Amino acid sequence: MGNQMTAQELKEMFLFVAGRVVENEEHLTEIDGKIGDGDHGTGMAMGFREILRELPACEAEHPEEIFKEAGTILLDTMGGASGVLFGTMFISGIVKRPLNDFLEIKDFAEIFRSSLDALKRRGKAKIGDKTMVDAFEPAVIALEKSAADRLALKEGLAAAAQSARAGMEYTKELKARFGRAKYFGEKAIGIPDAGAVSVWIIYQAMSDWAAENI
Ligand code: ADP
Ligand code: MG
C-alpha cells in the first residue's frame, strides 16, 4: 500500500508518538523551566502516558475515531492551556469530516489544517509569536504541498517533520507574546518554545513510524 493508513495503523503510530513524547519529558521540562514555569514536560508526559494506557483498548474501524480518542484523552488528563491546545491538535480536525476506512496524505493535510485553524482561532497566536504555531503551521503547509505533489504518505510525513523542525529552530530567534514565556523578554532569545519542540517531536515520531511501517 504505502499511500493509505488504516485505523489500526494510525493507532499504532499514535502509540509510538506517545512513547516518544514521554521519553522527552525531562527535555521539555528543562526548556519550559528556562522561559516558562517548567510544567510543559510534566503536562505532556501525563497526557501521552494516558494515551499509552487507554488507546490500545480503542477498537476503531475508522481513523477519525482514533484522532478523537487521542484528543479526548489529552483534553481530559493534561489540563491547563496546553491540554486544550494539544487536545485541539488531535480533535478539531475531524469533527466535521465523514468517517473513512483509511487516511491518505491529503486527509492528513486537511485534518491538520482544520485543527491548526481551530488552534489559531482559540489561542490567537500567529507565526512569529514563539508558540507551537511556529512549528505546526509549516508542518501543515508541507503536508498540503506533499498532497498536491501526490507524494507517498511517508514522504509527506517526512517533509512535515522537517518543516516542523525548521519552525521550532526559528522560535529560538523570537521573543514570546503568549504563555508565561512573554514575561522573560529578551531572555527568551536562544531558547526554543517548548510547545514548538513538542509539535516537532510529534511530527518526527509520525515520520519515523511511517518510514518503518508503511
Ligand atoms: P503554560 O503556558 O500554561 O505553562 P505549558 O507550559 O504546558 O502551559 O505550554 C506552554 C506552550 O503552550 C507554549 O510553549 C506554547 O507553545 C503554547 N501556547 C501557549 N499559549 C498559546 C497560544 N495562545 N496559542 C498557541 N500556543 C500557545
Ligand atoms: Mg508552562
Describe it for me?
With 214 residues, the chain is mostly helical. Helices cover 68% and strands 2% of the residues. It contains nine helices and two strands; from the N terminus they run E-H-H-H-H-H-E-H-H-H-H. Strands 1-2 form a two-stranded antiparallel sheet. Helix 4 packs antiparallel against helix 5 and helix 7 packs parallel to helix 9. The longest helix has 20 residues. It is globular. The mean pLDDT is 95. The protein binds adenosine-5'-diphosphate and magnesium ion (MG). Magnesium ion binds next to loops.
Q: How does the SSE layout of this entry go?
A:
Elements: E1 5-6, H1 7-23, H2 25-35, H3 40-54, H4 63-78, H5 80-91, E2 102-103, H6 105-123, H7 133-148, H8 153-171, H9 194-213
Antiparallel strand pairs: 1-2
The structure holds adenosine-5'-diphosphate and magnesium ion.
The stretches of 5 or more residues where confidence is low (pLDDT under 50) are none
Q: List how many beta strands DSSP finds.
A: 2
Structural class: mainly alpha
Measured distance between first and last alpha carbons = 7 Å
Give structural attributes:
binds adenosine-5'-diphosphate; 2 strands; mainly alpha; binds magnesium ion; 68% helix; 214 residues
What would a concise description of this structure say?
The chain is mainly α and 214 residues long.
